[in-house]
Amino acid sequence: xxxxxxxxxxxxxxxxxxxxxxxxxxxxxxxxxxxxxxxxxxxxxxxxxxxxxxxxxxxxxxxxxxxxxxxxxxxxxxxxxxxxxxxxxxxxxxxxxxxxxxxxxxxxxxxxxxxxxxxxxxxxxxxxxxxxxxxxxxxxxxxxxxxxxxxxxxxxxxxxxxxxxxxxxxxxxxxxxxxxxxxxxxxxxxxxxxxxxxxxxxxxxxxxxxxxxxxxxxxxxxxxxxxxxxxxxxxxxxxxxxxxxxxxxxxxxxxxxxxxxxxxxxxxxxxxxxxxxxxxxxxxxxxxxxxxxxxxxxxxxxxxxxxxxxxxx
Length: 313
Prior knowledge:
Helix content is 41%, strand content 29%. The protein is α+β, with helices and mostly antiparallel strands. A ten-stranded antiparallel β-sheet has the order 2-5-6-7-1-8-13-12-11-10. Strand 6 and strand 7 form a beta hairpin. It has helices at 17-33, 84-87, 93-102, 123-131, 173-176, 189-201, 208-212, 229-239, 252-275, 277-292, 297-311, and strands spanning 2-12, 41-43, 48-49, 53-54, 56-60, 66-72, 75-83, 106-116, 135-136, 141-146, 155-162, 165-171, 181-188, 216-221, 224-227.
C-alpha cells in the first residue's frame, strides 16, 4: 500500500502577532473540520523545536496536527506538521491540499511511503546494489544503523540520495509493527513543492509513481542501463498499488490510556485489594481532584473529543 505519511508547511504572516494568530487559528479550525468525526486543537504551554525553536506551539487531539509560531525580523513564521494520521481521517485529501495552497502555505517537506508485506526485495539485495552503486536517479548511498525504538538493536536503513531527495529502504516492522518492508521517499523544499503542486492539479495520480521515478536499480554497460529483475518485479507491485491507502489513527488519549493499563494498572489493583473498596474509591476521587488542578489546554481538548466519541459511539 502507498500512502502520504508526512507533510510540513510554513509561511510568514504579517508583522502583528494578533494578526498571525488569527490567520493560524482559521487554518487550524478548517483543517480540523475536515476530519470526519471532527477534531479539536489547543495551544501548548511549551515551545517546540523543528530545525529552530517555535515559542508558541499547538497540537490537535485526533489527527496529531502540531506546529508553532516563531518571531523573525520580517514577521512571524508559522510551521504546521500534518502526519499520516491526519490524511487517514479526511474524505478528500486533494481538496485539503488545494485549500492549503490557497492559504499561501509553502510545502517544505513531503514523505510518501510504500509498504510491501512480502518483504521483497530482500534488504541485503538493496544494500548490495547501493554498495556497488548499481542505481541511478540519485548520486549517493549510505547505510545507517540507528536504535529508533526502545528495547531494540540498531535498525539498518539503506539511504539513497541526500538533502532535498532521499529514498530509504528498511524493515518497517521494527518501527510500525506492520510486518512489512518500506520504501520511503522524502522530499524537501522545491522538490516537495513541485510534487505537492502536481498532486493538487493531477487527477488519479498514482502516489507510488513519484517513488518509482525517483530511483532505478540496474547495471550500466556500454552506455545502456540494464534494470535488475528484482526491481522490475518491485515496479510491477508499486504500479498496482492503490492510489492512497492510509493507516488507522490512534487518538492521543488512547496512548495515555495504553500507558495507564501497562504501567499503573498493577499498582491500582494492589491499592484496591489492600485498601478496600470504600477507601480505594476515595483515593481515586482524590487523584482526579488533584489531576484537574494540573489541567493544560490540551487536556480540555481531550475531554471534548472523548465526549464526542462516546456520544457518537
